[in-house]
Amino acid sequence: MIAWRDELNIGVDAVDKQHQELVRMLNDFLEACTQQKGKEKLEETLDFLISYTVKHFNDEEALMKGAGYPHYIEHKAEHDQFVKEVAAIQQQLKEKGASVLTTIKLNRALVDWLINHIQKNDQQMGEYLKAKKA
Ligand SMILES: [Fe+2]
User: Fold this and answer.
1) Whose CA is closest to 75, among 63, 85, 90, 88?
2) Phi-psi region of 5 (alpha: psi -120 to 50; beta: other; left: phi over 0)
3) d(CA 43, CA 86)
4) What is 46-99 written as a DSSP string?
5) pLDDT band (50, 70, 90) for residue 1
6) How far away, in angstroms, is 79 Cα from ligand 1 center?
7) For labelling, which of 16, 62, 105, 119 has a CA lying 20 to 30 Å from the CA of 126?
8) Higher pLDDT residue, 67 or 107?
């Protein structure tokens, strides 16, 4: 379980709400994994993730563009990398079916992304957006 904590808030309400939704989904998945139901939950998690992150990343990118964020290119590259990673896991699922390995892969991709991306890149973006507004 990943408890929502202060370091995950970037101070931009719309973005924080979407991140909370992603953490909820991640926790559902982690919970399923601990009950040995990760494989069953894999497809549902991937479907949700793909549609939700498309919207979420688009929203973040629009905010960055609108504010003239100087690290837009690098930030977007991280989003694209994450989308690619998730798409590769989905492809693997289609070709080979759910396995413990695909489950672990998704698990790791999600936790890494959450910890690294939100706490570093999104936090930095939040600082900039807040300063611009003030
Ligand atoms: Fe981001």
Assistant:
1) 63
2) beta
3) 11
4) HHHHHHHHHHHHHHHHHHHHHHT-TTHHHHHHHHHHHHHHHHHHHHHHHHH---
5) confident
6) 6
7) 105
8) 67
pLDDT tens by residue, 73-130 = 999 999 999 999 999 999 988 998 888 888 888 888 888 887 789 999 999 999 999 9
In the reported structure, the alpha carbon of residue 131 is separated from the centroid of ligand 1 by a whole-number distance in angstroms of 17
Q: Which two tokens stand for residue 38?
A: 């990760």
Q: Which tokens go with 62?
A: 């629009």
Q: What CA–CA distance (Å, rounded) separates 120 from 15?
A: 14
What the block records as the tokens of 90 is: 């989905």
CA distance 120 to 68: 19
Whole-number Å distance, alpha carbon 65 to ligand 1 midpoint, is 13
CA of 57 to the centre of ligand 1 (A): 6
In single-letter form, the type of residue at position 65 comes to: K
Query: Nearest CA to 17 among 4, 2, 33?
Result: 4
79 within 8 A of 18, measured Cβ to Cβ: no
User: What's the CA gap between 68 and 59, in Å, rounded?
Assistant: 14
